[in-house]
Design goal:
The protein contains 4 helices and 28 strands. With 378 residues, it is an alpha+beta fold.
Length: 378
């Protein structure tokens, strides 16, 4: 008995030391290596108590579930067909973005090329040769014919003018925005004068395109920031991170207003619904989740009983009734938002789904994959 107690006591001491070590490591990562662990113990307990209080308040307003309230809703049938394959990239397609005219699509690939497609004809209308193959994301601004690509290795955001034919052949950027210390995860134009970027350095930065200077630096995540979603008002945006959280930001104040939790792994994509109160997220944990900013919590999730593949990208229909989710197992699943059931499966890609998006009119879906192809669906 004495030996057993001694072993248990040793295990207890080891666990305490491991916990203290994890706390110390966390604060090292946050840039404060001189933390006194004894002083941190009461703060850790206080933080835990605050988290419990937040959870209790969330539960207080969670008096029902979306699926319970939607039990009387009629099931929907979706007729979706592949309209066209866009062939031209030589290697994996990493990112795509619809133009506001609902006709053109911008795509980025590991083959060091940015292509602009006419989705009606399937022809390429612009091509820009890049000096770096690690193009992780792209954004298209039709108003002035500009597009933006992000380079993982260079840690910079390059803005190109499609009206400049010389730039398309030379790969010379209109403006290069350098300031991040990690890979670039996402970019979105706010206007022809401003662009928002996220990075592996745990930060988001709002840029002035004309001067190339930083306007606002936003930091609150504890992990790499891989995705962004800007609300239509251009003042509010969401960010998803490898720290498993989604944060709601106000650009006017430069502050994080809400932190929403629920995922068990990296958050890799996030999209607003058209009502401006709800958004959907994709994660490596294989679950698509629907959040509501008013109740400050997740209100539903979409997955099979035993998720077998991570979710790499997500989008919604114009009404919000359908969620499009791209998976690592090459499939796109269409989920009924109200009933939580799959209504269709698109299984024509031969590689991991890396990106997808719905045009502004809500009539076409574009999917991009590691099989080098983009597909347009009606």
């Amino acid at each position: 008995v004495t030996d057993t107690l001694a072993v248990l006591f040793t295990l207890h001491i080891s666990c305490v030391r491991l916990y203290d070590a994890s706390v110390y490591y966390t604060y090292q990562v946050m840039g404060d290596p001189g933390v006194n662990l004894e002083d941190m113990a009461p703060l850790e307990r206080e933080a835990y108590d605050l988290k419990v209080q937040l959870q209790e308040k969330r539960q207080a307003v969670c008096d029902t579930s979306l699926f319970n309230e939607a039990q009387g809703a009629e099931p929907i049938s979706v007729k979706i067909r592949r309209r066209r394959d866009l062939k031209g990239h030589l290697t994996k397609v990493y990112a795509m973005d619809w133009c506001t005219d609902a006709k053109h699509v911008l795509s980025a690939s590991q083959d060091s090329r940015l292509l602009v497609w006419d989705t009606y004809s399937g022809n390429k209308i612009h091509a820009i040769e890049l000096k770096c193959s690690w193009v992780m994301c792209c954004s298209y601004l039709r108003a002035i014919g500009e597009l933006c690509c992000l380079r993982r290795v260079g840690q910079c955001c390059s803005v190109y003018d499609l009206n400049d034919e010389d730039a398309q052949f030379s790969g010379k950027a209109l403006k290069v925005l350098a300031g991040h210390d990690g890979y670039l995860g996402e970019c979105q134009f706010l206007s022809d004068k401003q662009i928002l970027t996220s990075s592996g350095d745990h930060m988001c930065i709002l840029w002035d395109i004309g001067t190339g200077q930083q306007i606002t630096t936003l930091k609150d995540h504890l992990g790499e920031v891989d995705c962004l979603a800007v609300l239509k008002d251009q003042n509010t945006f969401l960010s998803g991170s490898t720290d498993t959280t989604i944060k709601l930001w106000d650009l006017r104040e430069g502050m994080c207003k809400q932190t929403l939790v629920g995922h068990m792994s990296d958050v890799v994509d996030v999209k607003w619904l058209s009502n401006g109160y709800n958004f959907v997220t994709a994660s490596d944990d294989g679950i698509v989740r629907l959040f509501d900013v008013r109740s400050d919590q997740e209100i539903s999730q979409y997955s099979y009983e035993y998720p077998i593949a991570g979710v790499s990208s997500v989008a919604t229909s114009l009404s919000g009734r359908i969620i499009f989710a791209g998976y690592d197992d090459f499939n796109v699943i269409l989920w009924d938002t109200l009933l939580g059931e799959p209504v269709a499966v698109l299984s024509e890609h031969q590689g991991k789904l890396s990106c997808l998006g719905v045009d502004k009119d809500g009539v076409a879906l574009c999917t991009g994959s590691w099989d080098n192809l983009l597909k347009i669906w009606n």
